[in-house]
């Protein structure tokens, strides 16, 4: 996270230093967590707007959403680099969400191809496998 500094204040940077976090009062921790949640939601909303809108040409979108940085985000959300024992139910739900939406997009694309019927069956089986492996949280 080399660019973290650009988005986080000195007060928020404390989350990168566990020894400093231990020194904070419960109220200080709550305030930092709340600020990080709010700031993170705004960043995600901004990225979503950029990705969904026609504000930028595809060439610019490719510079923002590279395979590498999107891959790093997906890896972090899914806990891919964690040991299986360190993955949490939250990681599982993120994995499920990414997989289900990806399968649905691929399935729609497949329906418009010459192999639509065959691929549709494959994607439906993949969708069932994901749902059987990681049930949706209630």
Features:
disordered N terminus, mainly alpha, 69% helix, 2 domains, 138 residues
Descriptive account of the structure:
- The protein contains seven helices and no strands.
- With 138 residues, it is an all-alpha fold.
- The chain folds into two domains: 65 residues, no CATH class; 72 residues.
- The radius of gyration is 19 Å and the shape is extended.
- The N terminus is likely disordered.
Q: How many discrete domains?
A: 2
| Main beta-sheet annotation | none
Mean pLDDT: 88
Number of strands: 0
| Proportion in β-strands | under 5%
Are there runs of 5+ residues with pLDDT below 50, and where?
A: 1-5
Shape: extended
Total helical elements: 7
Kindly state the percentage of residues in helix: 55-70%
> Which sequence of SSEs, written as H and E, runs from N to C?
HHHHHHH
CA-atom Rg in angstroms: 19 Å
* Structural class assignment: mainly alpha
Q: What's the layout of helices and strands?
A:
Elements: H1 4-7, H2 18-21, H3 26-52, H4 58-64, H5 67-78, H6 89-111, H7 116-133
